[in-house]
């Protein structure tokens, strides 16, 4: 998930490790036969079912080797779930509590896209509705119409901002969007020829959710997703709230106070596992929107990262198609992925030990390959 167009404006903030491209990357080599970490825990499953037998066992030896602190990551948390036996472990300076909380960064976008697809299913608007109709006056009058569907699938053509935030400020969503629409910055690229990941798309979608529902983004997350799925540790914090309730997966690190519907939520591994499973199994969306969740737009061909019409990242690793999202916040980079129907799920979080994106990319791909 390349971060040149991720949660924060790349030109104005420090590098946030959301540039973990999965599609097309080669699996990193792993050492077989390693001993399981002492903290590893078997999770309940249903190994006797036909669905479980259809999937390979979790490669715990490979995962254990990949999780050993090294020059790529000083610590790693992994939780594998779905059908069949699960597995969880943490290494390095990460909490050994399997329910430790953390900022999920751009994984937040999956929650935002789910809200938007729910509203589409309710007939509040369509994927072809221009955002200018829903948020009049928010975008410059001379811009071409940008549809809800283009925002969801990162095909809006919106460019990177050219003005900086003041360190420590917690701007409103409207102020954040104003950075992308400043007349000194480049206008959207027309015609759009390929997907280009950009956090501005999801700030606008969060604003659409609030305008159409008349409720706050945080309220809609709680009402439409967290409560129905029983996610007790998943929420959107109040503006400017930098705290993470204990137990905390990793201490320290700068926290962006403004990421909101684009990258500001908190959760934990069990909740994210339940969310991706519920999403992929159709518990949150109507059938038509469930199909949109997996439809791949033509502009995704050739993109660095490929996103569905509904905002899901799609990657093929070791011959297996996986769906999910990566995200970063503070010191850590995290992700949630699943195979079709949520039959096997992976939640991971790493503490990067360096600045080599290719090495981190390979590590994430290898974790996904060993788990799914």
What does this structure look like?
With 372 residues, the chain is of the alpha+beta class. It has one domain (3-371): DD-peptidase/beta-lactamase superfamily (Beta-lactamase). It is built from 12 helices and 10 strands. Helix 2 packs antiparallel against helix 12 (357-371) and helix 3 crosses helix 8 (217-229).
Strand content: 15-25%
Average of the residue pLDDT scores = 84
Tally of alpha and pi helices: 12
Give the class from helix and strand content and strand pairing: alpha+beta
Work out the helicity level: 25-40%
CATH topology: Beta-lactamase
CATH architecture: 3-Layer(aba) Sandwich
Give the number of domains. Answer: 1
What is the topological layout?
Elements: E1 41-43, H1 50-53, H2 60-67, E2 73-82, E3 86-90, E4 101-103, H3 108-121, H4 131-134, H5 148-152, H6 173-181, H7 200-213, H8 217-229, H9 260-263, E5 266-268, H10 269-280, H11 287-294, E6 306-307, E7 313-317, E8 320-329, E9 332-338, E10 344-352, H12 357-371
Antiparallel strand pairs: 1-3, 2-3, 2-10, 4-5, 6-7, 7-8, 8-9, 9-10
Helix pairs in contact: 2-12, 3-7, 3-8, 3-11, 6-7
Give structural attributes:
12 helices, Beta-lactamase, globular, 10 strands, two-stranded antiparallel ribbon, 372 residues, eight-stranded antiparallel beta sheet, alpha+beta, disordered N terminus
